[in-house]
Amino acid sequence: MVTTTTTQATRRVASAGGAIDTVGVTQAFWAHHTPLPVLDEVTLSVPAGQFVSLVGPSGCGKSTLLRLIAGLDRPVAGHVYADGHEVTGPDPSRGIVFQDPTLLPWLSVEKNIGLGPQVQGRRDDPFVVERVNAMIDLVGLGSFRDALPAQLSGGMAQRAALARALVNRPQILLFDEPLGKLDALTRATLQTEIVRLWRDQGFTGVMVTHDVEEALLLSDRVIVFSARPARVLADICVDLERPRAQDAAGFRELRREILALLRQ
């Protein structure tokens, strides 16, 4: 296994949690009483405030690991921890943004973004109202607060999904290929926005992506997984100044290294 340890890539945020640890995490699905291995003893640590991307062959289990961190599923073996506490189910401190925005079509942008606090019975809390308004402005949807999802472009819908995840002030924000279906220009714009939101909000970010360049543009570290059952092949520090240039020598070298690992 190739491992590159992190140095100054770690970005700890004062007075904020968000550390993630997985210890020997193994996961399998079942088909006709036969286990289908997905993850094989995956152990990794993400310090609070760091942004990490997970790359690997399609179907290797990256999204499965994300769901385990979110608490949507439980591993068959091993443990997942957030700030030293074992993850046993979903929690508002861990938000997730999926590939599809999954906005409720009958609700406006404002009401979709405020859905989490509403479910928690806090819709009319003045602080929550202020927070929802702030998130709408933060993602640039102030002119579309009353629009329905069908009236939004793909990029605008993903902005709304980001705002919905951020409104609960998550310490950990998980991204399951949220930009995969967008055109190149919109994707580049939202990549920049995600970095800005990460810096402004101070959350710990973990993104699943098949785009090696996207991983290098956004992340402090890139974790490379093998084919299923997934094991960690490499933990690579992206020690490059931001904003990053894709034609820079260091960027090109890291891209070659990761692509070579993925071809194994």
Separate helix tally: 8
CATH architecture of the largest domain, by name, is 3-Layer(aba) Sandwich
Round the Cα radius of gyration to an integer and report it: 18 Å
Helical residues, percent: 25-40%
Gap between N and C termini: 12 Å
Mean pLDDT: 89
Count of distinct structural domains: 2
> Structural class of the helix and strand makeup?
alpha/beta
Query: What is the CATH superfamily label of the largest domain?
Result: P-loop containing nucleotide triphosphate hydrolases
Widest sheet, order of strands:
1-11-10-4-9-8-7
List the helices and strands in order.
EEEEHEEEHHHHEHEHEEH
User: What name does CATH use for the topology of the largest domain?
Assistant: Rossmann fold
Biggest pleated-sheet summary:
7 strands, mixed
Question: Any low-confidence stretches, pLDDT <50, length ≥5?
Answer: 1-15
Structure notes:
With 264 residues, this protein is an alpha/beta fold. It has two domains: 2-93 and 171-262, 3-Layer(aba) Sandwich (Rossmann fold), CATH 3.40.50.300; 103-169, no CATH class. It contains eight helices and eleven strands. It has helices at 62-70, 109-113, 115-119, 126-138, 154-166, 184-201, 212-218, 249-262, and strands spanning 2-3, 20-31, 34-46, 51-55, 77-82, 85-86, 94-97, 172-176, 204-208, 221-225, 232-237. Strands 1-11-10-4-9-8-7 form a seven-stranded mixed β-sheet, sandwiched between helices. Strands 3-2-5-6 form a four-stranded antiparallel β-sheet. Helix 4 packs antiparallel against helix 5 (154-166). The radius of gyration is 18 Å and the shape is globular. It starts with a strand and ends with a helix. Mean pLDDT is 89; it is low at 1-15. This is NitT/TauT family transport system ATP-binding protein. Residues 20-252 form the ABC transporter domain. Keywords: ATP-binding, Cell membrane, Membrane, Nucleotide-binding, Translocase, Transport. It comes from Propionibacterium cyclohexanicum. GO terms for molecular function: ATP binding; ATP hydrolysis activity.
